[in-house]
Amino acid sequence: MRNKTWLAGALLALSATAGAHAAPLKIVGFDDMSCQRWIASKDDAEQRAAYVAWVRGVLTGHNYANQSQQVSDISSGTVENYVNRYCAQKPQGSFGDAALRLSDQFSGRNAAITK
């Protein structure tokens, strides 16, 4: 499952950087990517670990696609704290969006990926 999770995250990051004329971003991830589901997973260590691994896969995909603006080493705890804050601020949002904003902030780009 972890390899599939990583692959899905990497594909998400690659598709997010595809180019100015790309089709709308299609997030390949879990069936429920809502912040509500993320928040509900706090007492399910296995599910939370899978979500964190998926986000780390997104960051790895970002690094592959944007080698000049890579995300530095980042701990699972930092990932979890970032997504927790994002979802607390945007409870109707998606933790997939949190992963993309995390790549924006930690890569030094500090701007959303443009389409």
Strand count, sense and closure of the main sheet?
none
Shape: globular
Q: Give me the number of helical elements.
A: 5
Number of domain units? 1
* Helical percentage: 55-70%
Number of strands: 0
Termini gap: 31 Å
Strand-pairing-aware structural class: mainly alpha
The average pLDDT value, as a whole number, equals 81
Oligomer: single chain
Instruction: State Rg.
Output: 13 Å
SSE pattern: HHHHH
Low-confidence region ranges: none
> What fraction of the residues are assigned to beta strands by DSSP?
under 5%
Walk me through the structure:
Helices cover 59% and strands 0% of the residues. It is mainly alpha-helical and 115 residues long. The protein has one domain (2-15, 33-106). Helix 1 packs across helix 3 and helix 3 (45-65) crosses helix 5.
Question: Which structural traits does this protein have?
Answer:
115 residues
List the helices and strands and how they pair.
Layout: H1 2-16, H2 35-40, H3 45-65, H4 76-89, H5 95-106
Helix pairs in contact: 1-3, 3-5, 4-5
Offer a quick outline of the entry:
The chain is mainly α.
